[in-house]
Amino acid sequence: MSREIEFWFDFSSPYAYFAALEIEALAARHQREVKWRPFLLGPAFSATGMQPLVQMPMRGDYAKHDWARLARRRGIPFALPASFPAATQIAARAFYWLEAEQPSLASRFVRAVFQAYFGEGREVHAPGEIVSLAARLGADAERLSTALQDPALKALLRAKTDEALARQIFGAPFIIVDGEAFWGSDRLGMVDEWLQRGGW
Predict the structure, then answer these.
(1) How far is 95 from 78, CA to CA, in rounded Å?
(2) 31 dihedral zone (left: phi>0; alpha: psi -120 to 50; beta)
(3) Residues forming a β-bridge with 33
(4) CA 78 from chain center: how many Å?
(5) Which of 20, 22, 90, 138 has the greatest number of CB atoms lying within 10 Å of its CB?
């Protein structure tokens, strides 16, 4: 049995932001480790016929209300950026480079991107912004900046996105424990119970 909790997400997902703030504590309670797996929701939307929530009548307005309500309930900052939903491939590529080259920074980078984008409402998806954010954590800015244009890193993110679709991951966040998949931040309580009970 794997000791990992897979956390599949897109940096543009507010629900992934909320779940990302809790998943490590949940994992620690069960002596597990989080395996962060950013991917791109765009291909998933194409495969399922879905759209970003804010582009859907009625559902978009509800989602905006729900995000603000969740933030108030949990006492955490939330500010929907003007660019939302933004393309997130630069942040995702940066994560995979950090995971390979400076792994101690990878999880901190995830939290930093989410905090900047949804906690502070900052525009952080341009290459310069991503490199600057990573550098403040201790990343090698010059090497990361070069790597972001590397075809191999672009191919890696495409492969992770293809893997997500092949595994029927169609939204964010998707949490997988011991082969069992849970979709949505509202399933964290169920994930916790599943780990406690050993499934059902």
Answers:
(1) 22
(2) left
(3) 4
(4) 16
(5) 20
Q: Is the separation of the CB atoms in 130 and 191 below 8 Å?
A: no
Within the chain, strands assigned E span 4-9, 33-38, 174-177, 180-183
140 DSSP β-pair partners: none
Q: What are phi and psi of 6, to 5 degrees?
A: -80, 130
Going from N- to C-terminal start, the domains of the chain cover 4-197
Say how far apart CA 37 and CA 160 lie, in whole Å.
8
Give me the residue label for tokens 């797996």.
37
pTM: 0.94
Instruction: Judge whether 118 and 78 are in contact, CB under 8 Å.
Output: yes
What is the CATH code of the structural domain delimited by 4-197?
A: 3.40.30.10
In three-state secondary structure terms, 99 is helix
Residue listed under structure tokens 């994992």: 27
Q: What is the pLDDT of residues 116-144, one digit of tens each?
A: 999 999 988 899 999 999 999 999 999 99
In the DSSP assignment, the letter for residue 184 is S
Side chain identity at 40, as an amino acid letter?
L
